[in-house]
Every structure is written in structure tokens, then in C-alpha cells.
Design a protein that fits this description.
about 100 residues; alpha+beta; 2 domains; 4 helices; 5 strands; about 40% helix; flat
């Protein structure tokens, strides 16, 4: 299904915390972040009549197996399961020829 939205429909749902982080502003004073947000909202308003946003989605039969999502007989691990230390150990074991295999 394809959904069509105007920018003004989507703009109220922007998570500005992620926006500030992406622009390296998450550690700046609130006044500077407010100014950047106001400028971004002004740019979005200027794009209102020129662009639209679209969303494409499809519903699938899915199950879970432990913390994994199983979709079309394929396990999809959730990111919160990945542990940097465990992955590093897996790589070291593979280098040492211990038969460990790291699959991401």
C-alpha cells in the first residue's frame, strides 16, 4: 500500500532530539537548538507546495523465536541483542581458528 502525505502532515511528528543529534547540536544550549528547529521548520514550510512525502508498507505473517522476528522462514535478530564484547570475542575466536563464525 502506498500512502501519500503532505509535509505539514508529517512535520508535527518529527523527533527533534534525533535531528539535533544528527546535526551535532544535542550538547548545545536550548536557545541554539530552538533557533535551529525554527529554521528547519521554516525550510519545511517552504517545501510544502513543492514536495510530498510517501510511505510504502506491506503486512506480512510473522512470528517470534526468542527475541528474534521470524519472517518468511528467516530469523531477523533485533539490534538490542548485539553486544559489542560478544561480537569482538567471536571475531577473535575466528582469527584463532577455533571454528567460531561471526554472521551479521
Amino acid at each position: 500500500m502506498l500512502l501519500d502525505y503532505s509535509i505539514s502532515d508529517v512535520a508535527p511528528h518529527i523527533n527533534w532530539d534525533y535531528f539535533f543529534y544528527a546535526w551535532g547540536m544535542h550538547t548545545q544550549p536550548q536557545a541554539e537548538r530552538d533557533q535551529l528547529q525554527a529554521e528547519a521548520e521554516s525550510v519545511l514550510a517552504g517545501l510544502q507546495d513543492k514536495y510530498r512525502t510517501h510511505a510504502l508498507f506491506q503486512l506480512f505473517d510473522a512470528n517470534s523465536q526468542g527475541d528474534d522476528i521470524v519472517l518468511a522462514h528467516r530469523n531477523i535478530p533485533l539490534l538490542r541483542q548485539h553486544d559489542v564484547i560478544a561480537l569482538t570475542v567471536g571475531v577473535e575466536q575466528q582469527k584463532e581458528g577455533m571454528g567460531a563464525k561471526l554472521v551479521l
